[in-house]
Amino acid sequence: LPEIFIKALPVVQTLTKAGYEAYFVGGSVRDLLLNRHIHDVDIATSAYPEEVKQLFERSIDTGIQHGTVTVLYDDDSYEITTFRTESGYQDYRRPDHVEFVQNLEEDLKRRDFTINALAMDEYGNIHDLFNGLDDLKNGLIKAVGNPERRFNEDALRMMRAVRFMSQLKFSLEENTRQAICDHHELLSKISVERIREEFVKMCVGPHARSAFQVFLDTQLSEEVPDFRGKKEQLSVFPSLTFSPSTEASVWAIIAILLKLPNEQIPKFMRDWKNSNQMTRKVEEIVFFFDLLSDHSPSDYELFLAGQDTVMSACDVARILGQPVNSEALVDRYVALPIKNHKELVVDGSTLIEWGIKPGPSLGDMLAKITEAVVDGKIANDEEAIKNFIVE
Ligand code: ATP
Ligand code: MG
């Protein structure tokens, strides 16, 4: 067993020694069997949250009303969730209340896909009640139980299906696929934030391009912000040379495929509930990408963009099949006399000390000085800058 499970074993054993059932569940078991990196280990147990808390010295009530307690053990933390079923799904979203149950099967039944419904006990035995092992072997994303019912309970599962396709390089089982086609419009009930999280994971996954094709073919794409009626533009994504590797490049590529003018990017990003910081980043990348498509950037343009934006824009260009010599650009950036405004030996207040009046012309002058220094026309020292101003 990988170290992450070995470390978690005493937590499971504490529960079983106290007479409860306890299993590793969900993504960690799936990823163990797929030999993928395991980022966290979740535990399901027959113990009630209060009983879990009594067994461990340190715990946090993460979602105690849903049965989840976070236990701190050694230097790690584990989410321990009481076996539960979910009921009262309203509006095709998460259930409004959960019911604790006493057996594993009931708990596994509520999980989304067969490959996510595997449990492993402390001896390493896999409990596979829905043929998840076969589906793992065959690379299939298949709903637990009746897919139509499952997507009616929680429509986000349809996005999770295409997300897992991309991350795991799996195919969609036929009935599950048909149910998504038939019920894609339920996705409109789900909050944009939750859709976005799955969408981005899909777009940066190793099989992003084929998953994106399914996202389009099943019409899921019609139910997300600003994508309705844009299938033709978006259908370029599956034929890209590579798939994007960062969240910012995902949005930049989508904005470029949708041919959004720069001034429409903020609205688009807001519709997807992205942060202002992400929006700014994407605007800068798209701006520099357009600039690259138009001409070879000057040193000052490289300086203004900054290294991160230059590299991201080169990456976006490469993904869109418009290769640029990004190494040469980065070399040029690295060779710039100054890399950011702070490295300039003068600032606004220096100029005011030198007797220049505050106001817009001061900003212009500072920009001219910066450009001259970046272009290597004058040295970055006070003497040279003073002479430059006099001239
Ligand atoms: P990741 O590697 O992205 O964390 P994961 O499978 O662990 O993948 P989580 O979102 O962390 O995914 O969920 C943990 C487990 O909870 C899943 O494996 C699945 O069994 C169950 N689960 C999560 N979301 C849902 C859902 N919307 N419907 C049903 N079961 C779900
Ligand atoms: Mg997880």
Automatic annotation (TrEMBL):
Every copy of the CCA-adding enzyme C-terminal domain together lies at 243-388
Q: What is its EC number?
A: 2.7.7.72
| Binding locations of CTP | 27, 30, 111, 154, 157, 160, 163
Q: Which residues bind Mg(2+)?
A: 40, 42
Cofactor names:
Mg(2+)
Q: What class of enzyme is it?
A: transferase
Which stretches make up the tRNA nucleotidyltransferase/poly(A) polymerase RNA and SrmB- binding domain?
170-225
Q: Which reaction does it catalyse?
A: a tRNA precursor + 2 CTP + ATP = a tRNA with a 3' CCA end + 3 diphosphate; a tRNA with a 3' CCA end + 2 CTP + ATP = a tRNA with a 3' CCACCA end + 3 diphosphate
The record's section on Pfam families has: PolyA_pol, PolyA_pol_RNAbd, tRNA_NucTran2_2
Identify a single GO molecular function assigned to this protein.
CCA tRNA nucleotidyltransferase activity
Keywords (A to Z) from UniProt: ATP-binding, Magnesium, Metal-binding, Nucleotide-binding, Nucleotidyltransferase, RNA repair, RNA-binding, Transferase, tRNA processing
Recorded hits in InterPro entries, A to Z, give:
Bact_CCA-adding_enz_type3_sf (IPR050264), CCA-adding_enz_C (IPR032810), CCA-adding_enz_firmicutes (IPR023068), NT_sf (IPR043519), PolA_pol_head_dom (IPR002646), PolyA_RNA-bd (IPR032828)
List residues of the Poly A polymerase head domain: 22-141
Sequence positions that bind ATP: 27, 30, 111, 154, 157, 160, 163
Q: Which family does it belong to?
A: Belongs to the tRNA nucleotidyltransferase/poly(A) polymerase family. Bacterial CCA-adding enzyme type 3 subfamily.
Print the miscellaneous field: A single active site specifically recognizes both ATP and CTP and is responsible for their addition.
NCBIfam families to which the protein is assigned, alphabetical: PRK13299.1 (NF009814)
Assembly behavior: Homodimer.
Purpose of the protein: Catalyzes the addition and repair of the essential 3'-terminal CCA sequence in tRNAs without using a nucleic acid template. Adds these three nucleotides in the order of C, C, and A to the tRNA nucleotide-73, using CTP and ATP as substrates and producing inorganic pyrophosphate. tRNA 3'-terminal CCA addition is required both for tRNA processing and repair. Also involved in tRNA surveillance by mediating tandem CCA addition to generate a CCACCA at the 3' terminus of unstable tRNAs. While stable tRNAs receive only 3'-terminal CCA, unstable tRNAs are marked with CCACCA and rapidly degraded.
What this protein is called in its record is CCA-adding enzyme
Taxonomic source organism:
Lactobacillus jensenii
Which gene is the coding source of this polypeptide chain?
A: cca
